[in-house]
Inverse folding.
């Protein structure tokens, strides 16, 4: 709903302009947790529940475009970025292998009254064909250098031949230190380059149960040669010297992920278990027992079985004592059991094995923060900054610690340094604006909040902060405007209270009374002292009216 709401807000603001929108929905994806009623209706298959929920949301997107009166002249493309495995070949989820259950995705082109309805293209096509197809349908021409080709002949039933598809995954190398996989699908034949090569006849063996690489070595060698030609023509595969190439070309090199970003990716099943210096020559097919252990640990975490997850992560640590993530994962499992001292002990053990490791130091610092051991957290972040002065984790945590201990000016320096690294970071912008507002730099704070409400128009907390800032500055009209917007987005008791106070300060007694009454109609969750204060103020305003 959040993505849908942001799209709807944006669509409403652009008026009658022509538009291009990429609306990126995350679902369906691990962890499977569809909202009601899909959770109840699909209790035995929550993944299908997420698919059904996503179908409903896509209907909402089309409905908004139809309400705008432009659906009949809008090209809609629906595509998935990956499929999902449910243990068929030893994997649950996606990323490690290149089997059909994770490669086959929906691809739908819809243009009301302009494309044939219910037409199904049986030929094999690729996601790289989307862009040239869109350009062709719009009559804009397809540049020669574009990878992929227009699917218009297929849509018009003038072409039926399968298109060769290059496939790859570097996830095994980047996350486990195993061999990356590449492959080529040509017609009904599929070749996967791995330490133990694979060849499948998808026409007769769609489940990929019979590896023909040894039996049909000549055919496998021919497809391998074609695969190598594709790789040479398209440049190196992802992750092989990419940073060096970007740096040589004068492009910005991607920075390291922050602890928060790693935690968010980890919550979605993307965890780096690799060890520094790993050769990456192990075939993922030979690591199914280890993969299952990882997936069982992740499932236990998703379901709140943290003691079980911790036991599995202890086994992973024994297998991979040189991987920083082994210590981090075990520490997180301990922390989720409220065993913070145990988490610290694990992280310190990791730093003994991997001294100076930024990931371990960052997680240790944040664990100290959760434990309210601010001096230890600050010292740990200072150690990180000696190694990496642009560490977003260390800069942010240092700013928060200094701000929380009243060292506002020092905190501001860290906020500014962190924002130089991540200028669009919402948390940093909000915290920096709060620091400015609390130290007398009200105009600067208002400027930041004004940009924030444009970037995040559905966040009531931002309108609250902006309204308060305007109120402190005596601009009650602007304060009222923002508190009103807050009530439109989230008509909470707090929103009506703030609105009532602003009207009172402005001198509009009637509106102040009306909003105090709205506040008192249902002040659930509000402090009793605040409720009593509102009652007293309402009595006073009525008596003076």
């Amino acid at each position: 709903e959040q993505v849908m709401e942001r799209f709807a807000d944006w669509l409403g603001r652009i008026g009658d302009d022509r538009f291009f929108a990429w609306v990126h929905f995350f679902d369906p994806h691990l962890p499977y947790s569809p909202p009601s009623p899909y959770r109840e209706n699909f209790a035995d298959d929550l993944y299908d529940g997420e698919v059904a929920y996503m179908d409903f949301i896509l209907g909402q997107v089309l409905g908004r475009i139809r309400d705008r009166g432009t659906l009949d002249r809008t090209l809609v493309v629906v595509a998935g970025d990956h499929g999902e495995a449910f243990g068929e070949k030893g994997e649950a989820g996606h990323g490690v292998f290149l089997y059909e259950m994770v490669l086959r995705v929906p691809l739908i082109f819809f243009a009301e009254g302009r494309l044939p309805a219910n037409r199904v293209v049986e030929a094999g096509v690729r996601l790289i064909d989307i862009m040239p197809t869109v350009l062709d349908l719009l009559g804009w021409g397809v540049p020669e250098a574009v990878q992929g080709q227009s699917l218009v002949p297929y849509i018009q039933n003038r072409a039926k031949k399968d298109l060769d598809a290059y496939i790859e995954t570097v996830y095994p190398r980047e996350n486990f230190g195993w061999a990356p996989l590449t492959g080529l699908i040509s017609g009904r034949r599929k070749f996967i380059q791995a330490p133990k090569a694979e060849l499948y006849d998808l026409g007769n063996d769609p489940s990929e149960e019979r590896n023909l690489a040894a039996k049909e070595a000549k055919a496998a060698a021919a497809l391998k040669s074609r695969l190598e030609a594709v790789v040479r023509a398209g440049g190196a595969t992802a992750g092989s010297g990419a940073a060096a190439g970007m740096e040589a070309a004068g492009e910005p090199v991607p920075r390291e992920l922050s602890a928060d970003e790693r935690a968010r990716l980890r919550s979605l099943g993307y965890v780096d278990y690799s060890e520094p210096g790993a050769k990456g020559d192990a075939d993922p097919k030979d690591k199914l027992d280890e993969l299952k252990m990882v997936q069982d640990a992740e499932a236990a975490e998703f379901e709140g079985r943290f003691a079980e997850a911790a036991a599995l992560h202890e086994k992973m640590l024994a297998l991979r004592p040189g991987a920083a993530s082994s210590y981090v994962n075990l520490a997180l499992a301990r922390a989720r059991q409220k065993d913070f001292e145990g988490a610290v002990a694990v992280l310190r053990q990791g730093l003994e094995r991997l001294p100076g490791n930024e990931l371990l130091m960052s997680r240790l610092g944040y664990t100290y923060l959760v434990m309210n051991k601010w001096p230890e957290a600050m010292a740990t972040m200072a150690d990180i900054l000696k190694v990496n002065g642009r560490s977003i984790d260390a800069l942010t945590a240092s700013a928060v610690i200094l701000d929380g201990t009243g060292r506002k000016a020092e905190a501001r320096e860290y906020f500014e340094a962190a924002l130089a690294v991540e200028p669009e970071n919402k948390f940093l912008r909000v915290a920096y604006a709060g620091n400015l507002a609390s130290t007398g730099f009200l105009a600067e704070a208002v400027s930041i909040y004004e940009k924030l409400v444009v970037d995040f128009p559905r966040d009531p907390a931002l309108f609250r902060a902006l309204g308060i800032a305007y109120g402190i500055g005596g601009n009650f009209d602007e304060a009222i405007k923002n508190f009103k917007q807050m009530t439109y987005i989230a008509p909470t008791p707090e929103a009506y209270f703030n609105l009532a106070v602003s009207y009172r300060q402005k001198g509009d007694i009637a509106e102040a009374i009306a909003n105090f009454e709205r506040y008192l109609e249902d002040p659930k969750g509000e402090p009793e002292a605040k409720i009593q204060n509102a009652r007293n103020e309402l009595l006073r305003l009525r008596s003076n009216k």
In short: The longest helix spans residues 46-67.
